[in-house]
Amino acid sequence: MPLLLTDAIRDTRTLLGEVSAVRWTDADMIMLLDLGQKHVAGLTLGYQRQVAFRDTDATDVFLPGRRDYALAGTVGAGGLGLTDVLAIQQIYLNDNELAQVIPKAVPTWNERARGTGTPAGWYEFAEVLTFLPIPNSAFLASYDVLVIYAALPTDWTTGLSVLPEGIADLTVWFAAALAFYSVNKYADALSCYQQYMAYADGYKPVAAEVEPTVQRETRMPNPHPGAAPRRRPLTQQATS
């Protein structure tokens, strides 16, 4: 069953060896688990949402002569109004799935899809969704477009995690890693983070596995990106 926030707090405290609030308050736990849920969603693309755009909507999304639509842009002004997109995953037009075009194939598609027509493919780049070919007047007159995407969760402050069962459990390991890190227990933080990454491997999207052959990152991510880096790697820090 989906993970309850109260259960996540209890499980995180178990990893920390703190049954009741002593060093970390419940508010601290909620903040850390919310960060964990967002990190898990970004790593696994495991939180999915979908939105439908239809010609019967009050505001027309798709415009004559336009093939590029800003994901977070204003609906009716060349945007889709989607502010929580991590990655577009599938697009359906009138119940038929459109082909996702890889960027290096775009020139070939442009050559094949000159002019306008009913969209047959799409690609996403720099938070802009592009349809190929340019939608024609027949499409604009009658369309039912379903966009399915991996989303960034809203703040987790109560109730159930929005992440699917299994994936949601990863938030506990990430939260515990950040908690240990916050009190300079670097060895414990690294241990929890490595467990988190090991479990997350089974949930990563296929695309995430295609990466250069480099040594896996074993350090904790800095929870405060704007802060100055530490002088020594975590692996050289002594357990406090």
Element order, helices and strands?
HHEEEEEHEEEEHEHH
Number of domains: 2
Strand order of the largest sheet: 1-10-3-4
Helix content: 25-40%
**Mass-distribution shape:** elongated
Total of DSSP H or I helical runs spanning 4+ residues: 6
Q: Kindly, what is the distance between the CA atoms of the first and last residues, rounded to a whole number of angstroms?
A: 37 Å
Number of strands: 10
Major sheet? 4 strands, antiparallel
Q: Over the alpha carbons, how many angstroms does the gyration radius reach?
A: 22 Å
- Poorly predicted parts: 207-218, 223-240
What share of the residues does DSSP label as strand, in percent? 15-25%
The helix/strand class is alpha+beta
In words, what does this structure look like?
This protein has 2 domains: 5-46 and 154-209 and 217-236, no CATH class; 48-151, no CATH class. Helices cover 30% and strands 21% of the residues. The chain is built from 6 helices and 10 strands, in the order ααβββββαββββαβαα. The strands form 3 sheets. The chain has a 4-stranded antiparallel beta sheet with strand order 1-10-3-4, with no helix packed on it. The protein has a 4-stranded mixed beta sheet with strand order 2-8-7-5. Strand 3 and strand 4 (96-97) form a beta hairpin. Helix 1 (5-16) packs across helix 5. The longest helix has 19 residues, at 26-44. It is elongated.
